[in-house]
Description:
Blueprint: E1 11-15, H1 22-32, E2 36-38, E3 42-43, E4 58-59, H2 62-70, E5 74-80, E6 83-88, H3 89-97, E7 101-105, H4 108-117, E8 122-127, H5 131-141, H6 146-160, E9 168-171, H7 175-188, H8 194-209
Helix pairs in contact: 1-7, 5-6
Amino acid sequence: MTQPVKKQGNLYVVAAPSGGGKTSLINALMKMDPHLRLSISHTTRAPRQGELNGQHYYFVSAEEFRRLVDDDAFLEHARVYDHCYGTGREQVQKQLDQGFDVMLDIDWQGAAQIRKSFPDCRSIFIIPPSLATLQERLASRGLDSAEVIERRMQKARSELSHAGEFDYMIVNDDFDAALGDLYSIIRSGSHQRHGQQQRSETLLAQMLENE
């Protein structure tokens, strides 16, 4: 008897400026969808309080990271805020081959690299309702100094200028609504409602015009 061919999983890329709420949205989405797997990135930064090696990131030294780059072990890698991040090639491909949908939590630089290897991937950019809201969120986390927050805001402005390169944009002003939009994209592959997509593009244009 012929065995059915296992369907290849889909690859999704999610990016956002720091403080955009991407991590919270992804964590909530993972609880909703048992068919979805989150790729765990390698990083050279130190673990934050509560972070576990192999669960949140693979924490490696700068020397080990360079070795992995030389061995072509990453699908993408980038330097962000003085630290390096990379997505393991073997891990992602194995999960896709097993039929799982895989989500990559990376920045726009990594997304551009991924599109070259996986042109059929779907890319999603999470944008804040305004730059003022983003700055408030960064401050309320209590993780960074005023100087670091300003650096993150400067980088956020640069990152937002690349949002138009993504297949979808989601405005994260209402968490449940943003989560619903994200779930719809992942599960059905459908585009956002026309009005919602238009609103996303309008808000993005306003934030970029203010620069």
